[in-house]
Structures are given as C-alpha cells and as structure tokens.
Amino acid sequence: MKRAAAVLMLALLVGCQPQGEPSRGLAVVVDVIDGDTLTVDTAEGERVRVRMLGIDAPEEAKDGTPAECGASEAKEALAALVDDRQVGLTADSRSDVEDRYGRRLAYVDVDGLDVGAALIQAGWAAAWHPRSAVEPERGPSYQKAQKRAQAAGSGLWSTCPTVGR
C-alpha cells in the first residue's frame, strides 16, 4: 500500500512540473507550398511538411478548385522570408503536434522574426485556429496584428473583395 501511494505521489509530482520552453528545432526550407505551408529538411535529416500555427493564408488552386484571392501573393511573401533559409520550428503547448493531414504544426521564425506575425502584419495571412481547437499561445498577438493590417488595408485586406475568415 505504501509503495502504491509513493508511486501515485511521484506521478502527481511529475505531472505538476512546470512546462518548460516549447519544443524547438532547426530546419532548412526546401519548398514553399502556399502561404502557410512549407517543406523542410530537419537537423535530424527528416523531410517534413509544416503547417504554420496560428495563421491561415489563401489556398492555391487544387483539384479543380480555383486559387483564392491573394494566394500567389501570400505564397510569394512566405517564400521571400524563408525560401532556402534555416528556420526555427517551435511547437505550441496548446496545439497538436500534427494536423489531420500529417503536417507538423509549428511556429516558424527566421533570424528572430516570427514569420506568421510578419505575414499577418503584411496582410497576406489572417490569425486563425480551428474552431475545434484551443486558441494557440500566440493567438492574441496575432489577432492584434490582424486588426492593424485590416485598419491599414494591407495585403488581402485591400486587394480581395472578401476574405473568407
């Protein structure tokens, strides 16, 4: 009985440990798929498709569906920031590791710049998370950046008649 109590206490203590820094890794961007998705080679030698956390950009044409307004500009904006560069990938403690398509979910930064925030501020992405999910850690700051971009008429907010977000 004492042993069971000790094991339970240890499990509780381990479970109550403060969460450390979110998981972070380095990778090199090998392809930009669209304004919020890219393919990277990780430091461990793994090729991974990454869906950027906390943002949504217009979709490229796919499977007979036409491209959404601003899709090519959003893709170009992301490529200008990250193409062929080393980036940091940071997980979010509130989010899943992968989405339903098997893409790794991560914040992306390059040289200390939060790429998602930069795309939102430029108006080429919107702050977003699935309705079924908890808001990501950077959600509030991304929402503020989006409001500034909308007020300034940046990117999508001036070039696209409707932004379906």
UniProtKB/TrEMBL annotation:
<feature type="domain" description="TNase-like">
    <location>
        <begin position="23"/>
        <end position="159"/>
    </location>
</feature>
<keyword id="KW-0378">Hydrolase</keyword>
<dbReference type="GO" id="GO:0016787">
    <property type="term" value="F:hydrolase activity"/>
</dbReference>
<dbReference type="GO" id="GO:0004519">
    <property type="term" value="F:endonuclease activity"/>
</dbReference>
<keyword id="KW-0255">Endonuclease</keyword>
<dbReference type="InterPro" id="IPR016071">
    <property type="entry name" value="Staphylococal_nuclease_OB-fold"/>
</dbReference>
<keyword id="KW-0540">Nuclease</keyword>
<dbReference type="GO" id="GO:0003676">
    <property type="term" value="F:nucleic acid binding"/>
</dbReference>
<keyword id="KW-0614">Plasmid</keyword>
<dbReference type="Pfam" id="PF00565">
    <property type="entry name" value="SNase"/>
</dbReference>
<dbReference type="InterPro" id="IPR035437">
    <property type="entry name" value="SNase_OB-fold_sf"/>
</dbReference>
<dbReference type="InterPro" id="IPR002071">
    <property type="entry name" value="Thermonucl_AS"/>
</dbReference>
<protein>
    <recommendedName>
        <fullName>TNase-like domain-containing protein</fullName>
    </recommendedName>
</protein>
